[in-house]
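Backbone-to-sequence.
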């Protein structure tokens, strides 16, 4: 035997050769009726209890949702709401009364909800500069921020449509003539505060143009501490979304009436948007969302139904394992 033949034989023993020739040992499970029925039963028995526990956690969350954009427009201005919200000479203050129907344990999270607001629009999403948010005016590549890039030949910090449209409605909560303190610290992600917004970057030339978009920023506070802005800059994927405004650190009892004094500044009327105020508790699973629990219950129930159907079919048309007599190409021999 030559050296070439010996080398060829050695190559045939390598894992790569066996892999390319599909001769590696492999697990080839045979899905017999018993295995299929067992798998579906096991899936159903696991998914249904998990779904019920998840639904229970979601249903334990107490929510108060109040839409205020329509009611907070004075009667004479309801024909032209856009003119009302754009006129700075008209006061925008409004009062709402929220009744607590179920005990709410602190912390109680305050959200503002916007509907029919497409933050995921491509032009809107691109109109920002993450490098400028981190480095400030030292970074000059802000062409993506157009049309909100410069004002009076000076750079705008933070630039772009996302920051320009910052939500600026404010809320104050009263219970039994005593103000409920709202904790507005740590409402943004820690990773965003520490790594995406500069600690030495301050607002500059922001909302100084003729066309004002949304809220203004304190030029003496660095962007890393402007948590309203940080929360707003995290883009929502859906046209209806909630963003965290703050937390109430006191419990609310049944039949408590919370008076909300708000400033209806933000313009959603020009695009038929809706504004809602949400007070919500939380569970070990988070906020109120029945989708995950319903999905688990649906998959588990479907698995149990399929297991029952396969079991009945197996009992009705039982045949030995590897019996091929009923295969199509063998039926002719049966008929003869």
């Amino acid at each position: 035997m030559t050296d070439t033949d010996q080398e060829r034989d050695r190559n045939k023993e390598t894992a790569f050769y066996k892999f390319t020739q599909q001769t590696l040992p492999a697990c080839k499970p045979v899905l017999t009726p018993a295995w299929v029925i067992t798998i579906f039963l096991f899936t159903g028995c696991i998914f249904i209890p998990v779904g019920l526990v998840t639904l229970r956690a979601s249903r334990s969350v107490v929510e108060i949702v109040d839409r205020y954009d329509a009611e907070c427009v004075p009667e004479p201005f309801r024909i032209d709401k856009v003119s009302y919200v754009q006129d700075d000479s008209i006061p925008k203050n409004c009062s709402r009364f929220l009744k607590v129907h179920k005990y709410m344990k602190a912390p109680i999270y305050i959200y503002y909800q916007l509907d029919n607001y497409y933050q995921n629009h491509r032009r809107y999403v691109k109109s920002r500069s993450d490098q400028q948010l981190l480095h400030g005016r030292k970074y000059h590549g802000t062409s993506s921020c157009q049309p909100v890039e410069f004002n009076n030949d000076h750079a705008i910090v933070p630039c772009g449509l996302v920051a320009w449209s910052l939500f600026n409605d404010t809320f104050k909560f009263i219970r039994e003539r005593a103000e409920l303190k709202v904790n507005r610290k740590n409402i943004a992600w820690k990773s965003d505060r520490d790594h995406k917004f500069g600690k030495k970057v301050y607002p500059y030339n922001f909302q100084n143009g003729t066309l004002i978009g949304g809220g203004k920023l304190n030029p003496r506070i660095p962007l890393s501490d402007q948590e309203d802005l940080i929360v707003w800059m995290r883009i929502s994927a859906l046209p209806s979304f909630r963003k965290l405004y703050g937390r109430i650190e006191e419990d609310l009892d049944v039949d408590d009436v919370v008076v909300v004094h708000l400033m209806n500044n933000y313009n959603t009327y020009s695009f038929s948007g809706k504004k809602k105020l949400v007070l919500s508790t939380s569970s070990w699973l988070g906020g109120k969302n029945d989708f995950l629990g319903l999905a688990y219950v649906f998959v588990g129930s479907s698995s149990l139904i399929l297991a029952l159907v396969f079991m009945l079919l197996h009992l009705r048309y039982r045949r030995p394992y590897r019996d091929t007599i009923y295969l199509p190409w063998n039926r002719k021999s049966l008929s003869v």
